[in-house]
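Notes on consecutive records. When two proteins share a document, each keeps its own sequence and its own token line. Never mix them. Below: protein one.
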Amino acid sequence: MSEVIETEINELVDLILDDYKKDRFIDRVNNFNQIDKDIIKDIIYKLRQIFLPGFFSNKKYHTYTAKNNLSMLLEDVMYNLEKQIVIVLQYDTNFKDSHIENIYEEAHRISLEFFKKIPMIREYLETDLEAFYDGDPAAYCKDEIVFSYPGLFAIMVNRVAHELHLLGVPLIPRIMTEYAHSRTGIDIHPGAKLGKYFFIDHGTGIVIGETTEIGNNVKIYQGVTLGALSTRGGQSLKSKKRHPTIEDNVTIYSGASILGGDTVIGHDVVIGGNAFITKSIPAGTKVSIKQQELKMN
């Protein structure tokens, strides 16, 4: 019996190896120059330790001063981030024919610029945490929010990914936000611009598209879509404004869909649950669904 199985396995191996030889995109093999998603996830969690040192410390590090601990974390993250950036920059047509030394120099420059943004990212995270605590009567304390709220985690990852996106880093920002998406059910494209005091309540099923712009003090509930009216144009729509602009002090309740790059939701607007909006809403407006009929058999 074992000989039969071995023969069958060998035949299957030959079958699949022959399939690899068809020279399609999916047949490409480059074992020594592949991006490592596990390293990128590790970078996210180590950056979280840097952002919130009093909440997420590394138990493996036995250091006695904040300076030593931070130095070890930064060295670790910088080394791994630069290494991954070197790999992904080779996807950029601007570096297609560049010498590897030039790519390394650019990766180091990008990495350094990103780390200089950390105080700003932390400033925004402080406002987000404040918005979560002020906006959720179910929050027992801020510690509970930091340790358990998926919305804060998704926003933190987006703030990291957005800065890398602005610095022109391919692939890595999207891998970061899709990891947060898989963990939280919250899908925020790294290109989306998020203002201060951003609050995502519950969060599951939220989609925020690439060219979305969100102002300050915005509150979004589960199931909200900030999307495009149509993506049938495919790649021809690249870099065009396809997603809505949400101005300051807007609340969007669960299940609402707001679509289109020309759609602007004015400041202090309240969007009721399950609303479907494809045109701009003036400032100060309350939008709700009228005369929904409930039937019971």
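Protein two starts on the next line and is unrelated to protein one.
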Amino acid sequence: MEADVQPAHTTVLLQEAVDALLGDSVGSLACFVDATYGRGGHSALLLQRLPADATLIAFDRDPQAVAHAQTLQDSRFSIRQQPFSEMDALATGSLDGVLMDLGVSSPQIDSAERGFSFRFDGPLDMRMDTTRGMSAAQWLQEADIQTLTEVIRDYGEERFAGAIAKAIVARRTEHGPITRTTELATLVAAAVKTREKGQNPATRTFQALRIFINAELEELTQGLSAALRLLKPGGRLVVISFHSLEDRIVKQFIAEHAREVYDRRNPFAAPKTMALKALGRSKPCASEIAANPRARSAVMRVAQRLPHAPQAVHA
């Protein structure tokens, strides 16, 4: 068994994300949200750069991340142990910026007991909030072949999803529940015929289960909609994603709200006003990727709430 190593978390696109979020200036009584606190890299830099009368509200589902956040001694800062979709409870038009750094953090990946990684032998958990919900092991014991296939295929983009699902059901039928990360990784490796050079055969399956268990794509969709309602005119949305499923949702959301929509049934009606302006897409530079290989798949997209766009009414 490998040692449970917990290196310091390296925040991806740290300066770039904070620069994009703050823009050229920050007004008086500004309020920002760090939707994914993690280990506080973005929050710490934001607090260094925000004025004394600003407010920073952070969200995270992970009890360990919340415990870390509670060590910050800054009256401008508060942490909420909630999924970031629940920022929707904040007041309409109250935020100057929302930052989302999606996915799983290094401390989560590198903690064997969390079950996120096939590199360590640990309980097959994968929950970001370990105080609630069903673990990956519990779900694998109950799901049928069709459901397993759909989750592994759709969330992992795994072409051998059917073979993996059949192997999981056969394994639990013959030998009982799959409860350890290494058990699942070994099973998947036997079911996958070929794999991209340099990629562990279990990579896509572990990604799929983590995304599904934590409802990450649904959470992202809800969080983006909440951010749009909460941003003030001129407020900025910054999202860092780490795989194509997330980035596609962010890209399509910004594109949808950054164009005028005409009612084909009423060609003389005024178009629906654009709510966002896309400010660009960027990726880590070569030196950052060399220093932190986990940054290689990161994509950052930035958008700004247009001043003339009507605010949505909160239901």
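For the record: Residues 130-213 form a domain with the DNA polymerase; domain 1 fold (CATH 1.10.150.170).
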